[in-house]
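Our collaborator T.R. sent over the components below with a one-line note: 'Predict the complex.' Nothing else. No constraints on interfaces, no templates requested, no preferences about which chain binds where. So this is a plain run: every listed entity goes in together, and whatever single assembly comes back becomes the starting point for the next discussion.
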Amino acid sequence: EAQVTQNPRYLITVTGKKLTVTCSQNMNHEYMSWYRQDPGLGLRQIYYSMNVEVTDKGDVPEGYKVSRKEKRNFPLILESPSPNQTSLYFCASSQKQAGNSGNTIYFGEGSWLTVV
Amino acid sequence: AQSVTQLDSQVPVFEEAPVELRCNYSSSVSVYLFWYVQYPNQGLQLLLKYLSGSTLVKGINGFEAEFNKSQTSFHLRKPSVHISDTAEYFCAVSDQAGGSYIPTFGRGTSLIVHP
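Returned assembly:
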């Protein structure tokens, strides 16, 4: 079954304590991305990756890091979390397709992160 | 760069009534258009997409959307809603020239279906 798996699904942490949210996809997709979802703001892209060892900033990258050492994994790292990073986070993946075909983006189930 | 505006943050409707969720976009190039649905406590899943061809696109669960290039709109419709359609709906646009894998999402419309 095609899946994007995120862990943990729920986490409460304290300000400044480094944490990592893992993301793994089993579809051999080139493209992966992280979004945060906040009330009234929709989904905002944090970082994305076109392929292994290729990452780029999205709209709201401050306070986050990512890495793409393997095609299937795209962890999101919060080196020093702050309360304004309390949010619902989604990992997503998609296959790059040339030409007039569009892409379906597959989303994980989300990770609720609370920073106190 | 493209942008998406979902004109209504919340749409309440009674069961079995028709519904329209509005989406307008702006882009300097040709685009692909998508609607995603997010049920409570779940991730997003694709409802339908417009790539090319017929401007009327049919999706899952009885939803359809119409691409109107002159009005730069992609409104989502359903003739008769069910309680189970209660969810958050996101319109998204991506740039055809860019390969369509970097979408921009709207802020979402919360569809609330009352019995």
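Summary for T.R.: DSSP finds no helices and eleven strands in chain A.
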